[in-house]
Write a structure and sequence with these properties.
The complex is a heterodimer of chains A (213) and B (227). Chain A is mainly beta and 213 residues long. Chain A contains two helices and 13 strands. The longest helix of chain A is centred in the N-terminal third of the chain and has 20 residues. The radius of gyration of chain A is 38 Å and the shape is elongated. A five-stranded antiparallel beta sheet of chain B has the order 11-10-18-9-16, with no helix packed on it. A four-stranded antiparallel beta sheet of chain B has the order 6-8-17-13, with no helix packed on it. Classes of the chains: A mainly beta (213), B mainly beta (227). The interface between A and B is large, with 39 and 69 residues.
């Protein structure tokens, strides 16, 4: 009879672990030195130009007018621009003497209010007679409205008016980049003296929008 | 741990480090060496093959007076250089809807018989001088470049050796956006003597409302030798 002795192979775990670590270390060193690589960099630049578009109502009919009872109307301009510095919207009358004349009788005019001068803002509450305009607060994009020029709001007690200038002068300035189109609402007001010759009158004004750098 | 085990580990560490970092002295130079489990020389009428098996230690080692390349593959010493035509590419001034274009010429020289891979990445989307506004990346991807459509900043590979068909051909190139991390854009297989040029084309367009001004970013190219 033989007695069988069971022999257990002992694994030296710390030793095995250390051997694996050192092998990994060697492997990393080897891999690290295998690849031939090189890098190169370039800076790419481009400049996006300014673009601007302007659309304004083609007409602003004031309707029939009874002397002494002012009439009003409005239309709006839409300015779309990517200019980082915003834009300026200007206006002028096309007729040298007054904005509107009697149709077919150019010598018969309706007087304008004093020409708008942005350098020395001369907007005033409407009184008396004459053709006047203003930028209305209601509907105008906030950044495009200047309350110093056109009054704190659109009420009769605060709304300021001026006459159309004979050369472009700015009526709305927005120095911000506007990702979306901006709206400027124009208000028009007219009254005439009782002596004003009856009949149909018209005239044209021109708007211009210019980007700011 | 027993003393003999510690000695064994120290010896192993020394061998591992030393084999990877060369062996030699002021008086000798070993061009290449290998520690392998097998291998040899195989021949036929037309070919000769040298191979090794199970190399546990490979690498390049060098000192002031010696150099060693350990392992079979290091009997060939790779070199690779990458240069770019200009470190600044100005795509110029353009109006929205009228794309601007430009290009970079990448020159790779390598003696790797396997060729090389070309990778690219950008640091960020093209960014305005206000540091906030960006031109979006073009919608096409490197995996699936698309014919130019819409807006964004993208690139294509206009010419080179073995340009992948996915990039299209003049004038119908396909475009992709630059990724934020190194991504393979081109693979040149096989050995080529001399300089191998790859022309990368850039294209940018924006929507009309894109803020005007100057936008920049930086593109990094990496060339890696293939085994």
């Amino acid at each position: 009879m033989f007695s069988r002795k069971k022999e257990k192979t002992k694994i030296n775990l710390p030793l095995l672990f250390s051997v694996i670590l050192i092998c990994l270390f060697g492997l990393v060193l080897a891999m690290d030195s295998q690849s031939a690589t090189e890098t190169a960099q370039t800076t790419i630049s481009t400049t996006v130009q300014q673009v601007i578009s302007l659309g304004c109502g083609a007409t602003a009919p004031l309707g029939d007018l009874t002397p002494g009872t002012p009439v009003t109307t409005s239309n709006s301009c839409t300015i779309a621009t990517n200019a980082s510095g915003g834009y300026e919207l200007s206006v002028k009358r096309d007729d040298a003497d007054t904005t509107i004349d009697m149709i077919g009788e150019a010598a018969t005019n309706i007087a304008d209010k004093a020409d708008w001068t942005s350098a020395t803002p001369n907007g005033a509450l409407y009184s008396g007679t004459g053709l006047a305009f203003r930028v209305k607060q209601t509907g105008t994009t906030a950044n495009a409205y200047n309350s110093t020029w056109w009054g704190s709001d659109d009420t009769d007690g605060n709304a300021k008016f001026a006459g159309f200038p004979d050369a472009y002068d700015k009526i709305s300035v927005d120095t911000n980049y506007e990702a979306s189109a901006v709206t400027v609402v124009m208000g028009y007001k007219l009254d005439v003296a009782s002596t004003q010759k009856s009949g149909a009158y018209d005239g044209t004004i021109t708007f211009q929008a210019v980007t700011k750098p | 741990m027993k003393k003999k085990n510690i000695l064994f580990l120290l010896a192993l560490f020394f061998l591992s480090y030393n084999f990877c970092h060369g062996m030699g002295s002021e008086n000798y130079l070993i061009n290449s060496d290998v520690v392998g489990a097998g291998g040899g020389l195989g021949t036929s009428e037309s070919f000769k093959l040298k191979d090794t098996l199970g190399q546990p230690v490979i690498g390049i080692g060098q000192g002031t007076t010696y150099a060693v390349q350990q392992g079979f593959w290091y009997t060939v010493n790779y070199s690779l250089s990458l240069s770019i035509g200009s470190t600044v590419v100005n795509l110029g001034s353009f109006a929205p809807g009228n794309p601007a274009t430009g290009q970079s010429v990448l020159s790779v020289t390598t003696d790797s018989w396997g060729g090389y891979d070309l990778f690219a990445r950008q640091n960020h989307d093209m960014t305005h001088t206000d540091s906030v506004t960006t031109i979006p990346a073009y919608l096409g991807t490197i995996a699936s470049p698309t014919a130019w459509s819409g807006v964004g900043f993208g690139f294509t590979i206009k010419s080179g050796t073995d340009v992948e068909a996915k990039w299209g051909a003049d004038p119908d190139y396909n475009y992709a956006s630059f990724p934020g991390s190194d991504t393979k854009i081109h693979e040149k297989t096989g050995y080529k003597s001399g300089v191998d040029e790859t022309v990368v084309g850039y294209k940018v367009d924006v929507v009309p409302s894109q803020k005007s001004g100057t936008y920049t970013n930086m593109v990094t190219y990496t060339a890696m030798a293939k085994l």
